[in-house]
Amino acid sequence: MLLRLVPAVGVALALVTGSTTVSYAAGQAVVNDTPPSITGDPAVGSLLSADPGTWTPAEATYHYQWLRDGRAITGADTAAYRPRAGDLQHELYVTVTASADGFTDGEATSEHVTVGKGTLLVEKRPTIDGTARFGHVLVAKPGTWSGQPDRVRYQWLRDGKLVKGADGRRHPLGLADFGKRISVRATATKEGYRRAVATSGKTGAVGHRVPVSDVVRYHVETRGSIVADLGVFKRQAQQTFDDPRGWRGSGVEFRRVRSGGSMTLVLAHASEVPGFSSECSSEWSCRVGRYVIINQTRWLHASPMWNRVHRSLRDYRHMVVNHESGHWLGWGHRGCPSRGALAPVMQTQSKGLDGCRPNPWPTAAERDVPRF
Predict the structure, then answer these.
(1) In-domain check, residue 209
(2) Distance in angstroms (rounded) separating the CA atoms of residues 184 and 142
(3) Is 160 helix (H, G, I), strand (E, B) or coil?
(4) Residue 323 in contact with residue 345, Cβ under 8 Å?
(5) What is the pLDDT of residues 216-269, one digit of tens each?
(6) Tens digit of pLDDT for each residue in 44-57?
(7) For 128-144, what is each residue's pLDDT tens digit?
(8) Looking at the structure, do residues 218 and 358 belong to the same domain, yes or no?
C-alpha cells in the first residue's frame, strides 16, 4: 500500500491500492467500518478481550477504555479485561479510539455484555488429615480452587450419607462412625461466583482406638438352672468385648473359643455363685481365678440401684461384663473420683454410685490395663 501526496488546493492524502486511488482531505477522522466487539465469557473472573473492529485507514493504532454502565472503569485501558465482583449484573462496553498519522482520532463503542456469576473450579479435592480410629479427630483440608474462596464450609459424611450436625472443620470419631468410611464435602463461596462443591476421598473403615496388643481367648459355660437365652448371652457378651468403648479400646481383644483358653465366662444361677468362693454372694456377680461369673438374676433384671437411676438393662449387661472381666485383667475396685463424674467401670455400680454418674465403660483413667 502506497501513501503519496496528491496535488490540490491545500494538502490532501491519497491511498493507492492497485488501480484504485482513495483520497482523504487532511485532518479527516479515521473511519470505523465495523464496530468493536467483546469476546469471551462475560462472567466474574473470566477474561474478556476487545476486538477493535475494522477502520480506514487500516494502519490505525488502537487505544481501549472499558466502561461499566457507560462510565469509564479506572485502569481498564487495555484490550483485555477480567470482570470483578462489582461488575456482576452490570453492562460492560469497550470504547476503541483509533489514531493514524495525518488523521484526527476516530472513536467507536461496542455493544454491551451483561456480567454473570463466575465459576469456582476445584483444582485439588479436599483431603482429610488424621487417623481413622475411634476417639481420634479428623481434620478437613479445603483443597485448592481456581480462585481463592472467601469461605469454605464443611459437611462430614459417613458411608456417603450426611452426618447431622457434623459441619465443622474437625470431626471427632464416635461410636456411630465405628466401622464406617468417612469423607468430607467442602462448599466454597466467593463474592460474585456461584458456590462450588467438592468431596474428598473416603477413609478406610474407622477402627479401634489402638491396635491389638493382647489377645484373651475364653469359652462360655453355665452353672445351675439357666432360663436366660444362652445364645443372647454369648452374643451380647462378645459385643461388649468388641465395642470400641470397652477393653478393646485398651488394646485387649477377647476371642471366644469352643473350649479352653485362659478365661472362662460363666452364666450362673444365683444359687451357684457362692460355690466358686466364699467371697462370692448369690446377690452379685463375681470373679474367681480364671472364672468370670455373671449372676443370672442380675443379667435378667439388673440391680435395684441401676433400675432406680433408670439406665437400660443392656447398659447394665455391658457394665457387669466389663466390670468382672476387668477384675480378670488385673483391676481392683475403684471409687468415685468426684461428685458428678462418670463412675469408673471398676466401681461397684451395682450397689451404689457415691455421687458419680452410671457408666458401663472403662474411663480414660482405666485404659492402661494392668498386664494380666
Answers:
(1) no
(2) 9
(3) coil
(4) yes
(5) 999 999 999 999 999 999 999 999 999 999 999 999 999 999 999 999 999 999
(6) 999 999 999 999 99
(7) 999 999 999 999 999 99
(8) yes
**Backbone angle region of 18, left / alpha / beta, with phi > 0 → left and psi within -120 to 50 → alpha:** left
**CATH number of domain containing 61:** 2.60.40.2700
Grid coordinates of 225? 438352672
Across 319-335, average pLDDT = 97
Closest residue by Cα to residue 31 from 64, 2, 54: 54
Task: Give the pLDDT of residue 24.
Answer: 54
Helix axes 313-329, 230-242, angle to 10 degrees: 70
How distant, in Å, are the alpha carbons of 13, 14, 259 from that of 33? Answer: 19, 18, 100
Other C-beta atoms lying within 10 Å of the C-beta of residue 223? 17
Residue 188 lies in a domain: yes
Q: Do both 300 and 356 map to the same domain?
A: yes
Domain count, the chain: 3
Distance of CA 147 to the CA centre of its chain: 20
Closest alpha carbon to 240 in 254, 229, 226: 254
Write out the three cell numbers for 334: 475403684
Does 311 map to a domain?
yes
Q: What is the pLDDT of residues 282-301, one digit of tens each?
A: 999 999 999 999 999 999 99
Local confidence band at 3 (pLDDT 50, 70, 90 cut-offs): very low
CA triple 304-308-313, angle to 5 deg? 70
Q: Is 232 in the same domain as 315?
A: yes
Grid cell 445364645 is found at 231
Domain that holds residue 41: 2-116
Residue among 122, 121, 51, 40 at smallest CA distance from 82: 40
- For residue 285, the SS3 value is coil
Rounded Cα gap, residues 128 and 203, in angstroms: 8
Alpha-carbon distance 346 to 330, whole Å? 11
Q: What pLDDT shows up at residue 10?
A: 33
Q: How far apart are CA 256 and CA 237, in angstroms?
A: 10
Comparing C-alpha atoms, which of 353, 224, 218 is closest to residue 282?
224
C-alpha 131: how far from chain center: 14
Instruction: Confirm whether 372 is domain-assigned.
Output: no
Are residues 226 and 333 both part of a single domain?
yes
